[in-house]
Amino acid sequence: MKKLNIFILKSYIGPFILTFFISMFILLMQFLWRYIDDLVGKGLGAAVISELLLYASVSLVPMALPLAILLSSIMTFGDLAEHYELMAIKSAGVSLMRIMKPLIILVLFLSAGAFLFSNNVMPYANLKMQSLLWDVKHQKPEVSISEGIFSDALEGYTIKVGHKSRKTPMLYDIMIYNHTADNGNRDVTLADSGTMIMTSDKHYMVLTLYSGVNYVEEYEKRVRWTQREFPQRTTHFRVQQFAIDMSGLSFERSDESLFKNGYAMLNISQLQYTTDSLNKRYDERTDKYVDKLTTTNYFQKLNLKKEDSLWLSKTAIPVTTNLDMDSAFSTMTKMDRHNVLYRALESARSTKTYISQSVGDFERDKKIIKRHEIEWHRKFTLSIACLLLFFIGAPLGAIIRKGGLGTPIVVSVLCFVLYYVVNISGEKAAKMGSWPTWLGMWISSMVFAPIGAFLTYKAVKDATLLELSTYTDFFRKVFDKMMTNRTFAAVVNHFISEEKKAKAKLAAELERKKQALFNSFNQNGEDANA
Asked: What is the 8-class DSSP label of residue 144?
């Protein structure tokens, strides 16, 4: 049995490693395609790109690992079944579950490792990746000047170059608009040639211009617009040199502590503590809101003005806590009734506005709590997904009896896409609050657990699920069983007899029309001969 276990493990390890790295490569290419616009043209070094790809690869493990387990399971058992090795092992009296036993133990270890990875490594990788991705997104593009095109790569300046030397750093036919004063196109410089050289510390761009002229249109602020003049100052120069601050283009790392409180950067204990704190704060805020709404908006205190208290003292109605509102309202004049209704309407409108503004804040707080709860459940769903997809892939491989990278890839991708769609749909429902968090995060496991049990049972019984005769025989048995029922058989025979009668009636009608048409032709022929 030890040799059998070693043989099964060797058959599984190779495809698992291969499919894991293939899955990682595909998902990493998808990541690059998603963020390619944020990476290109910003002068990022190879170290920064490599670091970003490393952290992105770590964050993609929760998707690559279940897919690799599913695909390698189908490939391994499909290859064993295709070369009749699985049949030979079974003929020796070894059951399929005994053959799967070493792989079940291996997948259990992988599931435990996936849980530890998700709880300890993933938060750190997410923190590093989100921090680095934030810095990359907010990195300014690298300075690039093209021929014949206005460029605003230098902050505060718009530059156009007519021609660039291919051998030297010389630029020709230069036009520069200075927008540092933010007063429009009032400062223009034209130069025959020039150079743009970055300092060694990358903090300044030294711009040297030769044989040019500078046009500046002055702006008089102290004169009325109708009396305002715009004198122009023209300055000719042979050599002009100035430095442009480029410190904003250098890649700087932000403080990672700004991102450490995100729900994706916490482990299970931190998520549990944060969720409890958020729920407690949410409940306290809700209680305060209800108390304030009750005391301030629904049941307002009787703050009477001087004229109102004088009017109330003249009425015959005593001021008590059990005041009959209808009686008090009926004793008022028309003007007083109008004032009371107007104040009540204004109070209702202000209360409605206050409630509508507060609803958004409470929904946002509830959404943050949901995100933390979802992330808490996600730590466990990864481990369960590895186990479930193994019990789907291994029986499928034994049933389809195809190895290699052809049929197994198609089947595994379809299964994984179905699992992913169910998982994403449940997670979305949990985020929106349509479902409880636990149901949304575990719905995929609830759906695929019976499927895995069914496929494992069929594989153990050597069922042929992919042969057409299996389904035709099943429906034939069902139909034969239904025909044994006298009532069903009578109904079927009734419909059959009715169909036969309809066909006979239609045939008789066609024969009658045919005979009438034939007689009409004969009659026409006799009339023609006459």
From this structure: -
- The C-alpha atoms of residue 212 and residue 81 are separated, in whole angstroms, by 82
Measured in whole angstroms, the distance separating CA 164 from the mean position of its chain's CA atoms is: 45
* SS3 state at 170: strand
Q: pLDDT for 213-265, tens place per residue? A: 988 887 666 555 555 556 778 888 888 887 877 665 555 666 667 777 788 88
When the pLDDT of each residue in the chain is averaged and rounded to a whole number, the result is 80
Beta strands 170-178 and 187-198, pairing class: antiparallel
- What values do phi and psi take at 113, rounded to 5? -65, -35
Number of other CB atoms surrounding residue 433 within 10 Å: 13
For the purposes of burial, counting CB atoms within 10 Å of the CB of 513, is it exposed (0-12), middle (13-18) or buried (19 or more)? Answer: exposed
Listed in sequence order, the residues at least 6 apart from 78 whose beta carbon sits closer than 8 Å to its beta carbon are: 396, 397, 398, 400, 401, 402, 403, 404, 407, 408
Contact indicator for 419, 389 with CB cutoff of 8 Å: yes
The SS3 assignment for 189 reads strand
What is the spatial distance between Cα 414 and Cα 77, in angstroms, rounded to a whole number?
Answer: 18
When pLDDT is averaged across residues 395-408 and rounded to a whole number, the result is: 80
Which has more confidence, 248 or 328?
Answer: 328
d(C-alpha 471, C-alpha 23), whole Å: 34
Contact 378, 49 (CB under 8 A): no
pLDDT, residue 140, reads 59
CB of 42 closer than 8 Å to CB of 51: no
Amino acid at 127: L
CA distances from 523 to 292, 518, 519, 528 (A): 103, 9, 6, 9
Q: 140-192, pLDDT tens digit by residue?
A: 555 667 788 887 777 778 888 888 887 787 889 989 888 877 777 888 999 99
What's the pTM value of the predicted model, to 2 decimals? Answer: 0.67
Average of pLDDT values for 7-11? 91
What's the pLDDT band for 296 if we cut at 50, 70, 90? confident
The pLDDT-based confidence of 312 (bands split at 50, 70, 90) is: very low
Identify the burial level of 252 via C-beta atoms within 10 angstroms of its C-beta, where 0-12 means exposed, 13-18 middle and 19 or more buried: exposed
- Which residues have CB under 8 Å from 432's CB, separation 6+? none
Instruction: Write the CA distances from 364 to 353, 356, 361, 447, 470, integer angstroms.
Output: 18, 13, 5, 31, 54
> What is the arrangement of strands in the sheet containing 187-198, beginning at the earlier edge strand?
157-164, 170-178, 187-198, 204-217, 232-245
Q: Determine the pLDDT at residue 311.
A: 47
d(CA 386, CA 404): 21
Q: What is the mean pLDDT of residues 480-507?
A: 69
Cα distances (Å, whole numbers) of residue 297 to 83, 89, 353, 451: 79, 79, 11, 56
Strand partners, 195: 170, 208
Q: Any idea what the Cα angle at residue 398 is, between residues 397 and 401, rounded to 5°? A: 75
